[in-house]
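Ticket #4471: structure export looks truncated?
Reporter: QA, pipeline team
Priority: medium

Steps to reproduce: submit the single chain below to the structure queue and open the exported record.
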Amino acid sequence: MSARIAIIGAGLGGIALATLLRRMGHQATIYEQAGQFARVGAGIQMGANATKALRGLGVLDRLRQIGFRPESLLNRDHDTGAVSNELPGGEALELRYGSPHMCLHRADLHGALEALLEPGTVQLGRKLARYEQAGAGVVLHFSDGTREMADALIGADGVHSTVRAQMIGPDLPRFTGRVSHHLSGKFAGRAAQSVAHQMVGAGPAHRDLLHHRRTR
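Actual output as written to the record:
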């Protein structure tokens, strides 16, 4: 039986979920508050479990073309730069786990997933204001005064989720004591291979600097 499923938020999770639901025969529609997609975020790295899921979605071959598979993964001390741990990557890691460890920009992953969707699946400029139960379904009320009906509602709208706030009440993010800095840029100097670096610091807040470098 096909269901009308409303997904709030067109991030990585919302798009992947809509793709799978539509393959199962459901009418999945994503409502996204942004008026257009922008190149936001930074570099990310994905282990074998993640790339196996992306293979199932049908985008791994595309990601191999736009991302890269680091030949080495290094942890370095933030003060001295000394290597504290090194894990071989590349072919060795892929053979061991059955799928590659990959690095790429979040926006490139988002674009590859978005390309899987049928036209009209994502409705931009639709900011959810509230929802309410209506018999066996749910009514979505948007900030522009429009409404939509659905059989089920899924919140994929991030840390400031409107769905979660109404469902379980307002909450605040909890600081875990870890800070991760991501950057994109061009690096000059000698480099013999593709490397993913993680600079590990100490102190009241554990700080990571994640740096992906690829050489051609």
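Status: closed, not a bug. The export was complete when the record was re-opened. Leaving a note from the reviewer for reference: Residues 205-209 have pLDDT under 50 and may be disordered.
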